[in-house]
């Protein structure tokens, strides 16, 4: 005899059925986007709420986003997008896709397709954003983007999460990124002067 599905679901089970992170479900409950029933100290989600939300969530987009810093890295951008397509075909089969990409610094907030992505998120049209590496969306302030995404129930998936870095390594990477961005504006992203400046900065950092 088939076991009857529970009418009240724990947050973790509801999140699994909706394809969301439990943190997102809790935020939606708190914001009133999902109706929940208190059972002791826990929130339980009625199955009717899951059924109500499934249609809306399934209609939202999976956005594949790629970025490189300069036009000379076009091959790298193609590889990023190809990797994302392969992943989506395997792990997110049947979901409606939107592919966005930019050529520009990760420090720039004026990237056209990044702005388009954020607009779509705020219009509640995005379910998930997938990127290959953590710095593809932005070099700084990713925590702000993650907070925005969570507020709209958007999952951020990083296919190749980086190894854990020490605080010194993170500061070094951030400093070099700032120098690369500003020297690129001053001399050009692939100029001899910019390369020399970065080389000098790296030498100073490695030998304080």
UniProtKB/TrEMBL annotation:
Entries under Pfam families matching the protein: HTH_17 (PF12728), Resolvase (PF00239)
Organism: Dictyobacter aurantiacus
Transmembrane regions listed in the UniProt entry: none
UniProt-recorded name of the protein: IS607 family transposase ISTko1
Domain of life: Bacteria
Molecular function as annotated in GO: DNA binding; DNA strand exchange activity
Domain Resolvase/invertase-type recombinase catalytic: 61-205
InterPro entries the record matches: DNA-bd_dom_put_sf, HTH_17, IS607_transposase-like, Recombinase/Transposase-rel, Resolv_N, Resolvase-like_N_sf, SinI_DNA-bd, Transpos_IS607
